[in-house]
Amino acid sequence: MIRLRVHLFAAALLLTATSAAHAGLCGHWEAPKFSGNLSPKDVREASGMTTSKLVKDRVYWINDSGDKGFVYYSDAAGKNMRKAKVADYKPRDTEAIALAECAEGQCLALGDIGDNLGTRKHVKISFVREQKEYDGEMKVLRTLTLEYPDRAHDAEALVFLPNGDLWIITKEIRLKFLEVSAAQVFALTKADWSGTGDKELKLKKLGELPLPKWLSEDLFYTQAVTDAAINTQRQVLGLLTYGKAVEIPLSKLPDLANSMNWKKDVDYGVLAIEAPLPQQESMTYLTAPDRMVWSTEYRMPEAPIFSMTCARPAP
Question: What is the rounded CA–CA span in Å between residue 247 and residue 220?
């Protein structure tokens, strides 16, 4: 009996150590690698991307220019690009796309949350069902009409946490003054946004992410958040900027009120992207291997896709 307890205790320690070794910040990133291109015939301005849970190696894209009303999907290299029409969908400024668990099952959230001039009274998020095959037009399951509690905000980052809570992370850039302020975090609980039918809701402010402090040695415009994604393998929130990327363990998010005191390489990590892409505004994570993938709205004449692999999780 004692020997059995010893074995069980050892197995529990091994399981705990293995889990910890695969969660949190990355200990070593490999150099960025070119993955492929987005053809301007399809996605003219890639303002957001997310990874499918239904189809291996499928990536969804949202377009910020021209043919509004479509969702695009391809492999991680931008090949085999296809598009699906969303019926009666006429957004003002789509800037983000994310996966969410809806009442109907796995769905895509289309973030009409851009507001460069800061004049919108409401922003909107529409949900469509994710499918293995898209035949005909997709129907919008429901639309959330959202109001900020203080003022209008421009935003390009939308994520759903593992518990289902919805986060919008704002892009607080003021070109007139050549400065960026801390990204604001607004949220809805899953209980608030889920269910059936359209809803009008007021967002709740949770706190701030002080990227200007964390990236203080960088040019001001590279401190603005342009997209976000959740790495479910290492349990981190990833933030893309115009110059770098930042990762935050999900376990730190409840301590958002103390983010000004967080320590680099402990409470958050900074990914130094060599030769960042001009106007990089879309990112996602892929597994096997664990890697971050990102692209740009800028066409040269095609929009390149790059990736970085996490070769070793942090100890």
Answer: 19
Which pTM was predicted? 0.91
Q: Band the pLDDT of 65: cuts 50, 70, 90.
A: low
- Round to whole Å and give the CA distance between 288 and 310: 10
How far apart, in Å, do the first and last CA atoms of the chain sit?
Answer: 34
Q: What is the pLDDT of residue 66?
A: 59
Summarize pLDDT for 176-209 with one digit per residue, the tens: 888 999 999 999 999 999 998 999 999 999 999 9
How many C-beta neighbours within 10 Å does residue 152 have?
16
Residue type, 169: I
Cα distances (angstroms) measured from residue 99 to each of 58, 148, 222, 255, 312? 13, 22, 26, 24, 26
By DSSP bridging, strand 70-75 and strand 58-63 are antiparallel
Residue 158 has which token pair?
Answer: 């939308």
The predicted model gives 109-133 an average pLDDT of: 96
> Taking a C-beta distance cutoff of 8 angstroms, is the pair 24, 249 a contact?
yes
Which of these, 271, 270, 276, lies nearest to 298 by C-alpha position?
Answer: 276
- Asked if 280 and 295 touch (Cβ cutoff 8 Å), the reply is yes
pLDDT level of residue 68 (50, 70, 90 thresholds): confident
Q: What is the CATH number of domain 28-313?
A: 2.120.10
Are residues 149 and 157 in contact, defined by beta-carbon separation less than 8 angstroms?
Answer: no
